[in-house]
Amino acid sequence: MTTAETVFAPARAKAAADSATVRRRQGFQHGGWFVAPFLVLFTLFVIWPLLRGIYLSFTDANITGAGASFIGLDNYREALKDPLMWDALGHSAYFTLLVVPCITVLAFLLAMLAHHIERGKWLWRLCFFVPFLLPSTVAGNLWQWLFNPGTGMINYIFGIDTPWLTDKSFAMLAIVIETLWWTVGFSFLLYLAALQSIPGHLYEAAKLDGAGAWHRMVHITLPMLRNITGLVIALQILASLQVFDQAVVMMDFGPGPENSTRTFVQYTLEEGFTSYRVGYASAISVIFFVIIAAVALARMWLLRDRTEEASR
Fold first, then answer.
1. CB 139 within 8 A of CB 182
2. Residue 211 and residue 101 in contact, taking contact as beta carbons nearer than 8 Å
3. Does residue 251 sit in helix, strand or coil?
4. What tens digit of pLDDT does each residue of 276-312 get?
5. Is CB count within 10 Å lower at the N or C end of the chain?
């Protein structure tokens, strides 16, 4: 390198860095105006309610909001000793354990069927996805009628006399069945899109090597769907823990037989809008938020480790 280049190289590098900084600032100034409406709405309807709820969890506020006083961690101490809260959390966890594996396997099988079927492919895809478009009240009322022991079709078709909605042994199972029918379409769509993105030459090469259908699915399809399976499981866990609509509608806005279907979200609303204990309801909401955040962070951590292993 010549003497002139040695002298002017730092100056050119500094000028380039200054130019890049100016471009970033200009980009932020112009892009900030496009992002500002979203940030305002996000702050107004997400950040502020979250901060307000955390504040109320340290008070004895009622539904009117008048006369609230700061009580520290009393609400949290009461919540940790509240058997009804733990029962509701157990019901939500039990529902999640039933729904997540079933809906993951069912969505995969339906996607495989819709992907490989030749005739009427669009009709099968439509039938599998349409229930997901129904409002929760419509789906809940429909299955409430189907499970009715006197007039419903489930007992009539299978020739049984099961009290689905009035027996604690079957009430949660009925909600699980309704949820599978209602929400499997979303996971089905994710799996179908992932199946269509798998390169066809992988299957052709496997066929030339003599691999059968089972080996192709085990050694090509399932490994290629690993990421989408993780996504489906994570989304279903988060959604199932927050189960509310279908449980409330199918049980006529009650907690079910012997409180067997009262979920965590339902118990929170009962404390806030039936018992008028907004401060306590806010405290258990914060506890639930911590649980949901822990599940989401665990998913991110597992995904990061899996990505690091794949890159090695």
1. yes
2. no
3. coil
4. 899 999 999 999 999 999 988 887 887 775 655 555 5
5. C
Name the phi and psi angles at 188, rounded to 5. Answer: -60, -40
Answer whether 116's CB lies under 8 Å from 110's CB: no
> pTM for the whole thing?
0.84
What is the signed CA dihedral for 227, 233, 239, 240, rounded to 10 degrees? 180
Strands, E, within 71-111: which ranges?
none
Predicted confidence at residue 311, as pLDDT, reads 56
Q: pLDDT for 61-98, tens place per residue?
A: 888 777 788 999 999 999 999 999 999 999 999 999 99
Q: Are the C-beta atoms of residues 104 and 187 closer than 8 Å to each other?
A: yes
3-state secondary structure of 59: strand
Whole-number Å distance between alpha carbons of 125 and 97: 27
Confirm if 79 and 283 have CB atoms less than 8 A apart.
yes
